[in-house]
Write a structure and sequence with these properties.
alpha+beta; globular; identical protein binding; binds zinc ion; Cytidine_deaminase-like; 4 helices; five-stranded mixed beta sheet; binds 2'-deoxyuridine; cytidine deaminase activity; hydrolase
Length: 132
């Protein structure tokens, strides 16, 4: 499944809409037996750009998915791609301690991470509980 997810992420990357940065990113996640993939989508108003990871996650979420089993992210980087902070927090929303996070590049340099490494101390719903 790791290889299938990486392949799907590479395929999704070919749809990246990146007229400004020309930096193509692809992501693919496994949830409920289905693979959801996404690319980065830029905008003339740069701050409205949506990263590939969030595109894939939002596609899955709008299909009713609430837990990610595994996610692969790929870009043409020297080493494994490093997701931005916003995406790390969004992944955390739908990940648990078993979620496998594959960070890779076009040369096949792949690292397998879990949430504790991706974003230690990420904000959680329970952090809003004043009694804790
Ligand atoms: O993990 C990442 C990092 C960056 N980008 C996108 C956002 C923008 O389109 C381009 C350059 O930042 O790469 C992603 O999609 N995912
Ligand atoms: Zn991001």
């Amino acid at each position: 499944m790791k290889e299938r997810l990486i392949e799907a992420a590479i395929e999704a990357r070919s749809s990246a809409y990146v007229p400004y940065s020309h930096f193509e990113v692809g992501a693919a996640l496994l949830a409920g037996g289905t693979i959801y993939s996404g690319c980065n989508i830029e905008n003339a108003s740069f701050g409205l750009t949506n990263c590939a990871e969030r595109t894939a996650i939002f596609k899955a979420t709008s299909d009713g998915i609430r837990r990610i089993e595994a996610i692969a992210i790929v870009a043409d980087t020297a080493g494994p791609v490093s997701p931005c902070g916003a995406c790390r927090q969004v992944i955390a929303e739908f990940a648990d301690e078993h979620t496998r996070i594959y960070l890779t590049n076009l040369h096949g340099n792949t690292e397998e991470w879990t949430m504790d490494r991706l974003l230690p101390g990420y904000f959680q719903a329970k952090d809003m509980d004043k009694t804790n």
